Amino acid sequence: PPRLNTPPGFFSPFPHGTGSLSVSQEYLALEDGPLFLPNQFAQIAMESAYETGWDWIQNLKLYHIDNINYVNRFCNENLKGLLKVVVPEATYLIWIDCERLKMTKQELDDFFLLKCKIWLSSGESYGNGGSGFARLNIACPKERVIVAMDRIEAALRKETQVQDLVEFRRILWKWRKWICETQHRMS
To answer: Within 10 Å of residue 170's Cβ, how many Cβ atoms?
Structure first.
């Protein structure tokens, strides 16, 4: 069967058509044959990536690992376990376990988009096992990762304060009710 190869650092298909295709002789002998529409830029980009891309991709991997470690440390130290990072083994997409927030998919999506002002991929879009998770892309400048994590922290603090206030009011209401019932019994 045909197999697509890409140069180091090319994680997804690009519009300039980089990559090569390994095919069998039988496939090449088909009457319609394979259709290749490479452009000159694609050829140059692929050759350059294969010839000089190794150091670049190694440095990029280190940069991604540093961003992953930052997010993991931030969640452990600043968010006190509300969000847990599933450290990836081979990608720049981090799974974030959000189950402790006890939010529905829609509430979680709204929380990140409307309150944190960041767009994370919903874990449910990756199947049933992704329920309660979100995916964060850390393949960006560290400054953006820092801003995203700071926004999450600020929104969680605000959300926690609101929940604490609601819980305080609930307890206060129960306390007032108990006092009224006690006074009524005494009279």
So the answer is: 10
- What's the CA gap between 24 and 126, in Å, rounded? 33
Give exposure, 106-144, as e/b (b: 16+ Cβ within 10 Å). Answer: eebbebbeeebebebbbbbeeeeebebbbbbbbeeeeee
Is residue 20 scored above 80 in pLDDT? no
Could you tell me if 67 and 138 are in contact, meaning their C-beta atoms sit under 8 angstroms apart?
yes
CA-closest candidate to residue 101, choices 92, 117, 112, 90? 112
CA 157 to chain centre: 20
Side chain identity at residue 63, one-letter code: Y
**CA–CA dist 146, 67 (Å, integer):** 9
Tokens of 38: 């490479």
For residues 68 and 149, the answer to whether their CB atoms sit within 8 Å is no
The tens digit of pLDDT for each residue in 61-89 reads 999 999 999 999 999 999 888 899 999 98
